[in-house]
Amino acid sequence: MRQAYCLYRSARFAEALGALTAVPEERAVARLQLQAQLCYRMGRYADAITAYSELFQKHKVRGYVGLANRLANV
């Protein structure tokens, strides 16, 4: 997860997206958040929406801050 995030912060979006495949399932929420953010930054808006939809359907959004953070990227 750290590698993918570092690549994201370095604007190496395609590499970061590839690095997410190594993130274990127990980090699914963080993986989906970063995946959605990466897709959005790459202009892959439909993929970003899909990632956010999966995040909302499978995982509970806790509080308004979490919701605002996620919606700010859509």
Walk me through the structure.
The protein has one domain. 70% of the residues lie in helices and 0% in strands. It is mostly helical. The chain is built from 5 helices and no strands. The model has no long low-confidence stretch (mean pLDDT 84). Helix 1 runs antiparallel to helix 2 and helix 2 runs antiparallel to helix 3.
Order of helices and strands: HHHHH
Helical proportion, percent range? over 70%
Number of helical stretches of at least 4 residues: 5
Largest sheet: none
The secondary structure category is mainly alpha
- List how many beta strands DSSP finds: 0
Q: Roughly what fraction of the amino acids lie in strands?
A: under 5%
Spell out the key features of this protein.
mainly alpha, 5 helices, 74 residues
In short:
The protein is an all-alpha fold and 74 residues long. It has helices at residues 2-9, 13-19, 28-41, 45-58, 63-71.
Topology, element by element:
Elements: H1 2-9, H2 13-19, H3 28-41, H4 45-58, H5 63-71
Helix pairs in contact: 1-2, 2-3, 3-4
